[in-house]
Amino acid sequence: MAAMEQNIVMEKVVSFKPVNRHIQIELSPPTAVDAETTILLPADFKPKEERHVVATVVSWADDVRFAENLKEGIEIVVDNSMIEQININNSQLSVIQDNYIIAILI
């Protein structure tokens, strides 16, 4: 029990406040495709990624140009290639700058 308590103490909760027009987002996990047949693919094969994806807003910088239209949990369409992944204390966070937001879903 003492070892478990030590692990809990060693983990730090990350408080993250984006700045400089960045928006913290959450991406949906990729959906698994059920395949009824087996197809062998080359080891270096990577499926084509979509150019734009839907993400959920977690938080945003005060200077985001359209901050008045954002709220926690709202979905936005973003340029997938411009998402930045940040690792802090074994937690992965995703952020994107406001000029790579294509649309707000309402």
What does this structure look like?
The protein is mainly beta. It has a domain at 15-29 and 49-106: GroES chaperonin (10 Kd Chaperonin, Protein Cpn10, Chain O). The chain is 8% helix and 34% strand. It is elongated, with a radius of gyration of 18 Å.
The top-level CATH class of one domain is Mainly Beta
Q: Could you list the spans in which at least 5 consecutive residues all have pLDDT below 50?
A: 1-10
Task: Sketch the major β-sheet.
Answer: 6 strands, antiparallel
Outline type: elongated
In whole angstroms, the N-to-C terminal distance is 48 Å
**Number of DSSP strand runs:** 6
Instruction: Using the 3D structure, state the CATH architecture of one domain.
Output: Roll
CATH H-level superfamily title of one domain? GroES chaperonin
**Count of DSSP helices?**
1
Radius of gyration: 18 Å
Percent of sequence in beta strands: 25-35%
Question: Order of strands across the biggest sheet?
Answer: 4-5-1-2-3-6
CATH fold call of one domain: 10 Kd Chaperonin, Protein Cpn10, Chain O
| Structural class based on helices, strands and sheet pairing | mainly beta
Quick structural summary:
The protein has 106 residues and is mainly β. It is built from one helix and six strands. The longest helix is centred in the N-terminal third of the chain and has 9 residues, at 2-10.
List the topology elements.
Layout: H1 2-10, E1 22-27, E2 52-60, E3 75-79, E4 84-88, E5 91-97, E6 101-104
Antiparallel strand pairs: 1-2, 1-5, 2-3, 3-6, 4-5
Based on the model shown, name its key terms.
single chain; 106 residues; mainly beta; 10 Kd Chaperonin, Protein Cpn10, Chain O; six-stranded antiparallel sheet; 8% helix
